Amino acid sequence: MTDRIAAELAEVCAAFRIEGELTGYEIITTGNINTTYRVDFRRSGDGTEKSYIAQMVNTYVFKNPLLIMSNIDHVTEHIRAKGTDKACLHFHHTDSGANHYSNTHGCFWRLCNYIDSVTYDICNDPEILRRAGRAFGEFQMQLSDFDASKLHETIPDFHNTQKRLDRLFDDIRQDPCGRAGAVREEIEYIDFLRSTVTELGELLAKGELSLRVTHNDTKVNNVLFERHTAEPLTVIDLDTVMPGLVMHDFGDAVRSAANTAAEDERDLSAVRFDLDLYRAFSEGFIGRISRVSSAAQSLTEREIDTMALGALTITVELASRFLDDWLTGDRYFKTAYDGHNLDRARCQLRLASDMTAKYGEMRSIVKEIASGGRKFFTVKLHKPVLIGQQP
Ligand code: GN1
Ligand code: MG
User: Fold this and answer.
1) Which ligand 1 atom is the nearest neighbour of the CA of 34?
2) Which of 113, 135, 166 is the last residue of a domain?
3) Closest ligand to 31 CA?
4) Which range marks the domain in which residue 259 is found?
């Protein structure tokens, strides 16, 4: 192989002391931020093949990539010491003992083991989603005794919905690309939901909710599954492990798990929030966390009560992030075509709208699972005004 990417990958792998010859690579297109490759090697000694994951970190998003690598070191070590994961992420080190490498083009690289597995971008199999829920619940449990003071805040205010929305509305006022006029309806809908989706932040500020160590990017495709048995192997993408709210992890997961369409679906009539898929994920996630006996680990009444709000919050927050990126010239998320971020934003808003219509059921499903199967028929809508509103 003589192409430019192969040459760069070979240089990176050499820096991480990978032995043998680079025989191939494939770009992995999942993920909206970093650039990821599977690299294949043939060992010079016995000729065996081995693959790795080489990843170029997006330093526009992660302004200080050394911080994420320090977090990852601590987190993977903590999880590995528990010995509960079937497969663990393991990052390779350079000659000087660093788990990252900056090459001559100024790009920041890291390299970890390749785990043969499958992931799901869209999934309508409740059993798979139940397992994904269990995997994220397990992850939450593995980190429940992790010393949060070891963690750096890799992206400040990552899930500070209030700040995200303040920035969106600032950018709408400034309108640097002259695009705001085209999205009046979307802006109005976000404004309409504003007081609802900033409620979790207010409860946190009032001390009615506490921070845990959370993953903060719990899309279902961040769980690796065994190819044949579809058993979850491990949770990946540890860049945003930081102190956070468990409802955000739950919420981010269900907005991806229970969406009947892709995150960037343009046919909005295909975008629905499926309550059966939601229930399946919730059974895995809440069921896993509820099984613990320690008071510090188990979910509080308040957390259970605001799980569904976490889903609506993260969905609207993400819609606002996509929309803001579109309004300011598409610099944050990778895009495949002009208007990609706008399509993503509209899809998330449609999903949010469907959630508001099903909000009462979403809350009672969580409550039912957390109480071990007791049915609740009398749950009131969080804010009745939300019902049936369409973006
Ligand atoms: C980004 O790169 P990826 O796909 O793992 C983003 C998440 C969003 C997600 C939406 C650091 O995650 O917050 O939910 O896209 N990650 C960062 O698909 O901003
Ligand atoms: Mg990510």
Assistant:
1) 2
2) 113
3) 1
4) 126-370
- Give the number of the atom of ligand 1 that is nearest the alpha carbon of residue 33: 2
In a domain, 119, yes or no: no
Residues 106 and 140 occupy one common structural domain: no
Indicate if 155 and 71 belong to the same structural domain. no
* Tally of domains in the chain: 2
CA pair distance 159, 250, nearest whole angstrom: 13
CA distances from 302 to 129, 198, 309 (A): 24, 16, 11
CA dist list (Å): 263 to 121, 200, 220, 240: 9, 24, 12, 20
Residue nearest to atom 1 of ligand 1 (CA): 32
Please say which residue of 60, 91, 113 terminates a domain: 113
SS3 category, 325 = helix
Which residue is closest in CA terms to ligand 1's atom 9?
32
- Measured by CA distance, the residue closest to atom 7 of ligand 1 is 217
Cβ neighbours for 269, distance < 8 A, ≥ 6 positions apart: none
Within 6 Å (CB) of ligand 1, which residues are found?
A: 31-33, 61, 217, 219, 237, 239-240, 263, 318
pLDDT, block means (10 residues), the chain with 391 residues: 86 96 95 97 92 97 96 92 80 95 92 95 95 96 91 95 98 98 97 97 96 96 95 95 97 97 96 98 93 76 96 98 98 97 98 96 95 61 40 40
Q: What is the CATH number of the domain that holds 148?
A: 3.90.1200.10
Assigned domain for 266 exists: yes
Distance 208 CA to ligand 1 centre (A): 28
Model pTM score? 0.93
Residue 229: both structure tokens together:
């048995």
